Amino acid sequence: MIYFLTRALWFGLYILLIVAPLFFILIGGDLPGRGFWWEFSAALGFSALAMMGLQFALTARFKKATAPFGIDIIYHFHRYIGIILALFIIIHPAVFFREAPAMLSLLNPFTAPLAFKAGFISALSALLLISVSLIRRRANLEYDYWRLAHVLLSLIAVSFGLIHVFLIGHYTGPPANRALWAGLGAPWFLLAFYMRVLKPYLISKRPYLVDEVRPERGDSWTLRLLPEGPNFIKDKKGFKFLAGQFAWISIWHSPFTLKEHPFSIASSAEASPALEFTIKERGDFTKRIKTLSPRPDKKKNRVYVDAPYGSFCMDRYKASGLVFIAGGIGIAPIMSMLRTLRDRKDSRPVILFYSNKRYERAAFLEELEGLKEFLSLTLVHILESPDPGWAGEKGFINSTILDKYLPPERKELEYFICGPDPMMDAVEHALYRMGIPLSRFHSELFNLV
Fold first, then answer.
1. What is the CATH number assigned to the segment(s) 317-443?
2. pTM for the complete prediction?
3. What is the band of 26 on the pLDDT scale with cuts at 50, 70, 90?
């Protein structure tokens, strides 16, 4: 109930800030009416500008604001808002030119007045940013370069959007309106300063060092980190996290370079201040993890961590038993939960459904077997391409396999699902068809960016 109310409050504040400019235009005296469609176009433009600015807030990673939803949900919301924003940006001038066709010449950025040039630059930057973001994965664009372009284009879009509003001047002439628009715009740039300057500075003051890099099955590597400095370690100033959460880490670069990547924490929440991340080789960045090793040269061995984030955490729920459903490297956050349960000597029944292509490629194979000595753990391997003679489950996780191993009191358990999107979608549908309440299963969303 508390989470529901908190979510409602944050969402209400977001809507209020979106519509705030529509109230601002009424302050400062009477203005001549221009007809419904002109005012509708202006309202869309103002709301679009407010949405642009609030995109900074959605990605600022404020823990109190993201905790009720989970930062993965916030980032997906950020993406969908970008699509709505693109529609507003397109409709805003379309309605204007529908009412004043003679002014189509303003579309020429070389001859248009400065106010319209600024609007053109703002709209073009925003649309380019949104378009590139939507196709980044399919076009295989390099993440680091895309992210830098994303930041620069967003700053250009907001800056020139504000210039456009002030130069048009129809609703910013009265001093009160100018003051209110300035007050609305200032926090957006303060957020950008916090995200790109202040926060990286604070992170840079709390570095970690590589303590170990060990190979895992399935072309994966576990990176173990410890806080730098004897006092840092002695005082256990490493952050506290909930099992299942994740972090953004920067390796080979300072936090100011925007070259950070999100990974699930795989270590026990009871093992602070040590941190472990199990990372599968997928791209240029992840393939370099195995080249790391503890070195005397701290500059080459330093890692910066921004954490913890995420709501994929068993500690947020009370249940008589837990069910974990993992596919491939999706086992990483679930290992954090299993290790935490082990360290707490938790006696609740636990079932793990673990899907892989081949048995010998399953990460943590030996450790999972060993966990049976400490936990009331039922381990179910499901293999897509098993060797001849495999007597276990085959194919993909489905309702038949789930039904076979879940106890009669299955509706009282909490379910945690992490893996490739198709697997998670299939499992969620299977659980729903089996009558498991939606509030009982929780999925970790990988594709944050």
1. 3.40.50.80
2. 0.83
3. low
